[in-house]
Amino acid sequence: MNKLTLTEEDLEEIEPLLEDVAARYSCIEDPDLHRRAPVLARRLPAELLAFLEDHRLREPAALCVVSGFDVDETEIGPTPEHWQGSHISSPALRCEIFFLLCASVLGDVFGWATQQDGRIMHDVLPIKGHEHYELGSNSLQHLSWHTEDAFHPCRGDYVALMCLKNPDAVETMVCDAGDLDWSALDVDALFESAFTQMPDNSHLPTNSTSTGDPTIQRLRERSFKTIEAWNANPVERPVLFGDRLDPYMVLDPYHMKTDGWSERSLAAFTGLCDQIESRMKGVALEPGDCAFIDNFRAVHGRAAFQARYDGTDRWLKRLNVTRNLRGSRSWRPAADDRVIY
């Protein structure tokens, strides 16, 4: 893990930028803010920009953390009971802006029509009734480790998390591909298009809500039909890609069906999963921490915890970041639209 801690001088430089942006935009979901974010991000401190650019270009680690940003718990208020509507008049707007600008150094932020009503910035928090679901809103069940949106060809290069609250020091679990012993694995088999990746539960219609806009609703219904088709007929893809000596990986074992796999494929996959399990490391994010997980080089999950539902529970913000927004053009209604349908 690479880590940069902001200095007092950094914070003094950042604050006027946040005040300026907050005066122009009242909601983090403003499309104009998303378009301008890469330009606005150039006003961040030089050392912070260099740190994030190094993470993007050199890939020195699968996880980098920017810490030291001040989160005023009195200002942000209680942890919401649900993600619905949490972006409207958000008391955490100052934090959201800083997070968005940092993420925009790495690439373009985007969202999914099938997740959190198409919002770009998501809330990660426990929801009553989801305790044992395989969703980021669960609590009593650990969140199984995975590549974010492993099933989709337009998955992000990075999944980014900003901690607003974590009073119980709940750990985010990460395994870096650089920590694996590839010489002990059947890499050639894992590069074969022999593995089925199913859509994860967060993209299912049951975990979404309807929208009043008929055009958007029609596009979302098309997206859900695609998800259903992929569930019915999973596409066979490789688990590894890139350089065979230092490969990238994409897998989500909880949502993968092994039916019909050859003995070699199953043995290779099991060997990889066993290594990942043995090399998983926990990181307890603190308020103000912004974690950027390389979605090509790492899998991540979360330990179980006991939610209280009293406004004090763990609360993160989440962004998906891509280095190739054009790669999803056929999935988006317009070139500057950030939502994949």
TrEMBL record:
<keyword id="KW-0408">Iron</keyword>
<dbReference type="InterPro" id="IPR003819">
    <property type="entry name" value="TauD/TfdA-like"/>
</dbReference>
<dbReference type="Pfam" id="PF02668">
    <property type="entry name" value="TauD"/>
</dbReference>
<dbReference type="GO" id="GO:0005506">
    <property type="term" value="F:iron ion binding"/>
</dbReference>
<keyword id="KW-0479">Metal-binding</keyword>
<dbReference type="InterPro" id="IPR042098">
    <property type="entry name" value="TauD-like_sf"/>
</dbReference>
<dbReference type="InterPro" id="IPR023966">
    <property type="entry name" value="Arginine_beta-hydroxylase"/>
</dbReference>
<feature type="binding site">
    <location>
        <position position="146"/>
    </location>
    <ligand>
        <name>Fe cation</name>
    </ligand>
</feature>
<keyword id="KW-0560">Oxidoreductase</keyword>
<protein>
    <submittedName>
        <fullName>Fe(II)/alpha-ketoglutarate-dependent arginine beta-hydroxylase</fullName>
    </submittedName>
</protein>
<comment type="similarity">
    <text>Belongs to the clavaminate synthase family.</text>
</comment>
<dbReference type="GO" id="GO:0016491">
    <property type="term" value="F:oxidoreductase activity"/>
</dbReference>
<dbReference type="InterPro" id="IPR014503">
    <property type="entry name" value="Clavaminate_syn-like"/>
</dbReference>
<dbReference type="InterPro" id="IPR053447">
    <property type="entry name" value="Alpha-KG_dependent_hydroxylase"/>
</dbReference>
<feature type="domain" description="TauD/TfdA-like">
    <location>
        <begin position="131"/>
        <end position="319"/>
    </location>
</feature>
<feature type="binding site">
    <location>
        <position position="148"/>
    </location>
    <ligand>
        <name>Fe cation</name>
    </ligand>
</feature>
